[in-house]
Each structure stands twice: as structure tokens, then as C-alpha cells.
Amino acid sequence: MKLALNTLVYEVGNKGPEESLRSAAKYGFKYIEYAGIRKGNPQTMSAEQKKEAIRIVKDNGIHSTQMLLVATKDTAHPDKKKRDAVFDYMKTCAEFQMELGGRQLLVCWGGGLYELGVSPEQSWLYMLENVGRFAEWCLDKNLLVGIELDPHVYFICNNTYKLAKAVEDIGLPNIYPNIDVGHLVITREEPAQLEKLKSRMLHVHLSETESFAHTNSILGTGAVPFRQYVDKCIDLGIEENCAKIGEPCVAGIEMGSEASGGFVEDPDFWVEESLKFLEKELPHVKR
Fold first, then answer.
1. I want to staple 182 with a disulfide (CB 3.0 to 4.6 A). Which of 49, 121, 171, 207 is the partner?
2. TM segments (predicted)?
3. Contacts of 145 (CB under 8 A, 6+ apart)
4. In a domain, 72, yes or no
5. What are the backbone angles phi and psi of residue 78, rounded to the nearest 5°?
């Protein structure tokens, strides 16, 4: 397993993709997770910005292992126009991920939100329809579509049981469950709970929490026992899963809170402090 840098911490720090990618290269990362939001949103970036981001990635031998489709809270919205807008956004992100040379995409926000006035069952069906048609659109492009659980009551996929059920119900071979260890701590799901996901898991997020709030703070400043979860993923065969499909097996440092509108004063400092912690906590996971 290799260590990746998630660019979300720079977006939350009001830095653009050019700056985040240059910092990734500066800190010796060969693997990144690209956050498709704010200044890095592929729908609003100029052609020049995209060209420069692609140049930095290629010139520094960086692999975009995953693109986070962050603007997806309306994935299961009862208004079809909003669901369609999310679908268009996801396709744009997928096209940019291909330009960056990557295959993996992640539908964030737990597959969508429960909305007032809509039954949980109907919300589930909206989520399956929208994520399913996106995964189907990705099939002939050799792209992989991830879903992750988000750890609060208003997220549609908010535990490992629902995450496993979503993968099963969509039923396409390019769907995978993303493993975010900070989310699992909030939902009080021990590493053993990952057993049900072992045949499909491909990607890990290293995020921090103070046990109740998903702080996405500097790694090592909260309650997450990172090594227990990462070692369990390795024991369950995540590296073999990735090798079968020709993907690098990575755990990405995810920091900065998009959902709460937080701000990161100095993203580089957050990265440096997290790297110091991980050198002790996960010495076997290298950049």
C-alpha cells in the first residue's frame, strides 16, 4: 500500500489545483486523490487551468488514483433537474480524471442526502438510479465508481451495511466501496466490520475525527486508530484486489471539511504534521 495526498485540504485552504499539485510533488507524493470542488471543479475550470494541472501531473510522474466527486449532495434529490445536474457534473469529472490519467471516481456525500418530504425508500431508489446510470456510463470507458459511507443520519449510505447493500443493488462490476477510516470511527464500526466489503474494496481514506464530529483535521490530533483499520484492509486482501485490475493500492490523507465550510490557514503545515505522525503510525505505508 502506498500513501496518497488528497487535494481537498488545499481547496479548503482556498488554493487552486496548480498549487496543490505542486505541493504534492514538493513533498514527494507520486499518488494523489483529486478533489473536484471549489477552484478544482472541472465544470468551472478554464481550459488553461486544466491544461496546466495535466502538465504538472505528467511532468512530475504523479498518478491521480481517485477523483472525489464532491458536488454530489443532490445525487438523490427528488427534483429530477437537480439529479440530472449531478449526473452531468459526474460525467465532467470523469472526463477530466481520464485526462489526468486516472480511473477511479468517488461519489461523495454517502450517495446523497435524505430530503424532507421524501421517504427513505424512495431516496434509496433515487440514489441507485443516479449512481447506477453513472457507473453504467463509465463501464465502456474502463472507469471505476466508488461509493463511501458518510457518518450521519442524513446520509443515505451511513454504515457498512448500507454501503454493501448499495454495491449489491447497483450490481455493476465497476462499483467499489471506498473505505474512510474516520467515518468508521464515528459510526462505531470496528475493523472486523469490513469483512463484508473485502472482495470489492480498492481504496482507503485516512481522515481524522474527535469521535463524534468529522473534523477532517491534522492526522494524529483526534481519536482514529489508523493502523488497526489499514492493517485490516491489507489482511482482507485490498492489495490483491487492486493488483487484479492494475490499480495502485493507496491510502490517501484526506483533510479539510467541505461540508462544514471550514478553512485551512496553512495546508502545507497540515500535510507536514500529518506526515510526521504517519511515519510513526504507518511506517509500512510509504509515498
1. 207
2. none
3. 105, 106, 107, 131, 134, 135, 138, 172, 174, 175, 176
4. yes
5. -65, -20
